[in-house]
Amino acid sequence: MIDRFGRRLTYLRVSLIDRCNLRCLYCMPHGLLDPFKEEELLTMDEVARIVELFAELGISKVRLTGGEPLLRKGVPALVARLKSIPGIHEVVMTTNGILLAPFAAKLKQAGLDRLNISLDTLDRENFKRIAVIDKLPEVLGGIDAALKNGLGPIKLNMVLMKGINDHEVPAMVRFAVERRMDLRFIEWMPTAAEIHSVRENRFLDTESVRQSLESEFCLARKEVDPHAPARTYQIIGTHSTIGFISPLSNAFCSMCNRLRLKANGMMKTCLHGKEDLDLRCLLRSETSREEIRKRIEETVFDRPKEHFLNDPTVEHKDFIMTAVGG
């Protein structure tokens, strides 16, 4: 699939559930106020059928997200099924790690290729401040289990928050290096208006973080997948890399190769754009595979050139990240 700007789409992010077992202040601090009903969620069979369609259209990488994807029953079986689809070369997952320990061996056996784990702090009190719920020991246990079972390479995702976790940045780098994991620093993006008002005083750009780290670590720019959102640096003398994901200060829209499937079957061609196509409705109305493929191709072709976060003339439409899948 190619859009009207010549970008080839090869990566699909699939949200399995909109619920989460944390209440992070940058995502949904008051919980999920209007969760999808059970009948609104795609079944695991429907997820696999949709991925089959996307694979026929050129998608080769699938990332399972949420909410917290491991809250959904049957994830290891889904991973195994997705891995069997012709054309799907990589199945990865993003998790907050709380439920990871009991699933790590099953996910490895199912064929999961890689894992991203969200970790914004190494301090237990600060974890409770950010996520509301005291679960840091479970997350660290999940990381240990993932490493033990060979679910690597593992990336840690840290959302930067000035005055909250910025003082922990060097410690997080050392934590990753000691375990031969990679680390990604992510700028706090605006979502709902309430979150945006808090974010204005907490935003920390990745470039300033990179400059501060160079006083302790020797960083060398590393060429990776040109579609990757992160600017990646090798930490010289280690097996770890640092990546900086900067959707606001260094937008990467021109190289974006991803689509998103919400847990309720709505497809989005841009994280911050509208809901473009209702695939659940098409599946359940028994629309033919050929027609669904055609509708996907037409919708993808018309995807926007870039997000509107830096354009003050565009009215921002609130959304909850857990419902979209990041």
What does it look like?
With 326 residues, the chain is of the alpha/beta class. The chain has one domain: Aldolase class I (TIM Barrel, Alpha-Beta Barrel). 31% of the residues lie in helices and 17% in strands. Helix 1 packs parallel to helix 2 (75-83), helix 2 packs parallel to helix 3 and helix 3 packs parallel to helix 5 (136-148). The longest helix is centred in the first third of the chain and has 13 residues, at 44-56. It is globular. The mean pLDDT is 89.
Task: Give structural attributes.
alpha/beta, TIM Barrel, twelve-stranded mixed β-sheet
> Average pLDDT, to the nearest integer?
89
Order of helices and strands: EHEHEHEHHEHEHHEEEEEEHHH
- Low-pLDDT runs: none
CATH homologous superfamily - what is it?
Answer: Aldolase class I
Layout: helices, strands, pairs:
Blueprint: E1 11-15, H1 44-56, E2 61-65, H2 75-83, E3 90-95, H3 100-110, E4 114-118, H4 124-131, H5 136-148, E5 154-159, H6 169-178, E6 182-186, H7 193-199, H8 206-213, E7 219-221, E8 230-235, E9 241-245, E10 258-261, E11 266-268, E12 277-278, H9 279-284, H10 289-301, H11 321-324
Parallel strand pairs: 1-2, 1-10, 2-3, 3-4, 4-5, 5-6, 6-9
Antiparallel strand pairs: 7-8, 8-9, 10-11, 11-12
Helix pairs in contact: 1-2, 2-3, 3-5
